[in-house]
Design a protein that fits this description.
It contains 22 helices and 15 strands. By secondary structure, it is an alpha/beta fold. The chain has a 5-stranded parallel beta sheet, sandwiched between helices. Strands 6-5-13 form a 3-stranded mixed beta sheet, with helices on both faces. The chain has a 3-stranded mixed beta sheet with strand order 12-14-15, with helices on one face. The N terminus is likely disordered. The structure holds D-mannonic acid.
């Protein structure tokens, strides 16, 4: 049972004391027992937006793997718009791969939840009805496969994070030695990984003579559709050559660019949303006003009218995807590592420091020259809008959250742009500083000697390297650059090694704040 469900009768508010410490004040707001649910929708205060369609008519057309906050604040909102526009056959069944938390929180409220859109001017609340049910893959893999193989399902979408594809980020190939992949090859009908579930369900559909669903990757991977197609067909071919061939030939994997900043929901957020709703919502999501979804229009089994819901349908998503990864995500990561080291808790806090704001702008300028965009794209306006979004004071997006899984993120966010700039004979100092920030971060010790909770599939490997090299840039940089899964051949380039060594030396000697100031 979630603590918030048992312990609801207070509201958490946060206040800043004079010395800047955040303190939590608990304020009793009386017993509120009503919970968000279909039966209570008409009791919501009038300012709360709610599903503008008959929920009882909606049927599932999509299975979504990775039922995290991002999906619920992004794709599910678009599908909610499609349902409101009169396409009831596109409801979503969500699946968490491991944890039952989301299902346990959402099932008692009929899978309704609130999206809180936060801006400096205020917050807007919208209750989403697009999610019809949820599964926990680890608990009942067979049921999830059956759901995915059901003929009514025409799209399987995914947000399982970069590491959820069990691939080598540097090459984009399936990691055949990944423990989940080894497990799934031995247990094809009770898989654990996203590729394992997709292949199990597609194999079932093929045997039953059903058309395949479209696989719609919504994670921040370079060429995400093509990459997932390669991973899935490689995995399927290990099960059977024929199956691999069939998937390669008949399943559509459109690439997508997804964008919306969605920080992790906190207890204080839950309390604030429940207070606004005047009823309990155990699992709301927090986000910003901006949202963007660009998709290649290649669906093998139909799709709702996504364009009417604001989605940009294009023939080639690559330029948009690279633009977003190299401008937004790269500078996000730079701010996350360096901002964390400098003692900033959130991206908005980091952006209040003019040197860090300048660093983000510089990183974007440097990456922008590596892009080739359609003539209609105004990159300067895009960069300006990103800086504004990062500075949104109403969003508490923790630097620590973005710092997670750097080994899976660096290649598509920073290393591709570094490679392109080196090819063009351009300096790489700003990006090298970001890479050095990542290196300093994954040593696991901050500037005050405190432990950093490094979350990364390769965290142990990095910790060993850091222990052996010690806090010496000349030793640590080549040792980390030699991690081929992250850096590949670029790791041996002396121009990268020298620039990162200089930057890391400064981070050790002066600390992140001073080093950033020196660079901008
Ligand atoms: C962030 C992204 O956590 C991260 O790594 O950079 O989640 C970012 O907020 C989204 O991609 C924005 O669309």
């Amino acid at each position: 049972m979630l603590p918030i469900l048992e312990n609801w009768s207070y509201q958490l508010t946060e206040a800043l004391t004079e010395d800047g410490l955040r303190v939590k004040q608990q304020q009793n707001i009386g017993e509120t027992t009503m919970q968000l649910g279909r039966a209570n929708l008409d009791r919501l205060p009038s300012g709360i937006h709610r599903p503008a369609y008959d929920l009882s008519c909606v049927t599932p057309g999509i299975v979504h793997l990775g039922l995290g906050a991002f999906h619920r604040a992004h794709q599910a909102v678009v599908i909610d718009d499609c349902l409101a526009a009169g396409a009831p056959a596109w409801g979503i069944i969500g699946a968490s791969l491991r944890s039952p938390d989301t299902r346990d929180a959402l099932a008692p409220q009929d899978h309704l939840y609130t999206v809180a859109v936060r801006a400096a001017e205020g917050t807007e609340y919208r209750v989403i009805g697009a999610l019809l049910g949820s599964e926990v893959a680890r608990e009942s893999p067979a049921r999830l496969i059956a759901r995915m193989a059901d003929p009514s399902i025409r799209i399987v979408s995914l947000t399982v994070t970069e590491k959820g594809y069990c691939h080598t980020p540097q090459t984009g190939d399936l990691d055949e030695r990944h423990p989940d992949i080894v497990h799934d090859l031995n247990n094809p009908d009770a898989p654990r990984s996203a590729p394992g579930f997709i292949v199990a369900a597609l194999a079932r559909r093929r045997t039953q003579g059903l058309a395949p669903f479209t696989v719609l990757c919504c994670d921040n991977l370079a060429a995400n559709g093509h990459t997932v197609q390669r991973i899935v067909t490689q995995f399927a071919a290990l099960r059977s050559k024929d199956l691999g061939k069939w998937i390669g030939e008949s399943v559509a994997f459109p690439s997508t660019m997804v964008d919306r900043i969605v920080p992790e929901t906190t207890e204080a957020d839950r309390a604030a949303v429940s207070s606004a709703l005047d009823m309990r919502d155990a699992w709301p999501v927090m986000t910003e006003p901006f949202t963007q979804w660009v998709i290649e229009d290649r669906f093998s089994a139909g799709r709702p009218d996504l364009a009417a819901a604001g989605v940009e349908l294009v023939t080639d998503v690559k330029p948009f995807e690279l633009m977003k990864l190299r401008l937004l995500n790269a500078s996000h990561s730079a701010l996350a590592y360096l901002g964390y080291l400098a003692g900033y808790e959130t991206i908005a806090d980091t952006m209040t420091d003019p040197h860090f704001a300048r660093l983000a702008a510089r990183a974007m300028e440097d990456a922008a020259v590596t892009l080739t965009m359609p003539a209609s794209t105004d990159l300067a306006a895009y960069r300006a809008s990103l800086l504004k979004r990062f500075a949104n004071p109403a969003l508490h997006h923790r630097t620590w959250q973005i710092a997670m899984d750097g080994s899976q993120k660096l290649p598509q966010r920073l290393l591709g742009a570094i490679q392109d700039r080196l090819r063009q004979g351009l300096p790489i100092e700003t990006h090298a500083l970001a890479v050095a920030g990542w290196m300093r971060y994954v040593t696991g010790t901050d500037e005050h000697g405190r432990a950093i909770d490094v979350r990364d599939p390769l965290a142990d490997e990095f910790a060993t390297i850091a222990r052996e090299a010690g806090p010496v840039a000349e030793r640590l940089v080549p040792a980390l650059l030699a991690v081929g899964k992250v850096f590949g051949p670029l790791g041996t380039d002396p121009r990268l090694r020298d620039a990162v060594t200089t930057a890391l030396g400064r981070l050790y000697a002066e600390g992140a704040r001073q080093a950033v100031e020196r660079y901008v």
